[in-house]
Design goal:
By secondary structure, the protein is mainly beta. The chain is built from two helices and 22 strands. The N and C termini lie far apart (41 Å).
């Protein structure tokens, strides 16, 4: 399967397998680099994962856990949910065999990328995660920079969290990163969504200027959207429901750069926002 044949929108349940709520390899996505797993562990449950040629970040979404390999043990202090606070996380290089254990149970994301080189395992406390506010007004959102290009560790993997307050827009203006140039780095990207509230929902759009891709979908907790190329954005949180998404990115270029191009039709918004205040609800924590 290649990405032109694979569906970009993967609703909750469509990627569940082998006891994982979500398990998607690059082959299953139809591309070359990014993958994602979401594990739902009962109290006292253990799960083993062999990374083989991939590297990974373990990000608690709900609850705390212990991550062990043959050489290291990381205790990750998690959170009640993704809307309540930051979390510890860890990184494991390609070839690692890990065991994830949760005494009280929880939900844990394992964001993966194929890697050309094995690096060193690392632990990142929640206190070290840099938080940014981006945009302005109704397009203000919160960025939790978990494994951005300036955070050492991975060979290829990039991971961020975005929190969009109820009624706001994020991933806007639309941007892309599918070509190699001085201003852009080719990166595959995964969006994993959670929405606050049982009936919460939002919207996501990805499109190309030639019209080969133009999808706008409603998203709920547990949904995944794949961005192989093209402009993506906005993500829109319905009024009354905060939106969270975790982005997994990786590509063929060494150096882990994140260079993007804004859709020229909407470039003017960046200057417009310099005169507008940010949403006072942010940061959420």
């Amino acid at each position: 399967m290649n990405i032109d044949q694979a569906p970009l929108f993967r609703p909750i349940g469509s990627l569940s397998s082998d006891g994982h709520a979500i398990r998607m390899t690059p082959e299953q996505a139809g591309w070359n680099w990014c993958g994602i797993m979401v594990l739902e562990l009962a109290a006292g449950e253990t799960r083993k994962i062999e990374l083989e040629e991939s590297e990974a970040a373990v990000v608690p979404l709900q609850g705390s856990c212990r991550v062990e390999t043959t050489t290291v043990t990381f205790k990750l202090e998690g959170r009640a949910n993704v809307f309540s606070g930051l979390t510890d996380l860890c990184f494991l290089p390609r070839g690692s065999e890990m065991t994830i254990f949760s005494e009280e149970g929880g939900r844990f994301c394992v964001a993966t990328s194929r890697a050309a080189h094995a690096t060193e395992p690392r632990y990142y406390p929640a206190s070290a995660v840099d938080v940014d506010l981006r945009g302005a007004g109704q397009a203000t959102r919160q960025i939790n920079n978990l494994l951005t290009a300036d955070v050492p560790g991975p060979d290829r993997l990039l991971v961020v969290e975005v929190l969009t307050p109820a009624g706001n827009w994020s991933s806007y203006p639309p941007h892309k990163h599918d070509e190699l140039s001085e201003d852009e780095t080719p990166l595959e990207e995964i969006y994993y969504f959670e929405i606050q509230g049982a009936d919460g929902f939002g919207f996501h759009r990805t499109y190309t200027l030639d019209g080969e891709i133009d999808e706008t979908v409603s998203v709920r907790s547990g949904d995944v959207f794949l961005v192989p190329r093209g402009y993506h954005g906005p993500c829109v949180a319905a009024p009354g429901y905060h939106m969270y998404y975790l982005n997994v990115m990786a590509g063929p270029q060494p150096g882990r750069e994140w260079l993007i191009c804004t859709d020229p039709a909407y470039q003017w918004l960046w200057e417009e926002w310099t005169t507008q205040p940010t949403d006072p609800r942010l940061p959420l924590y």
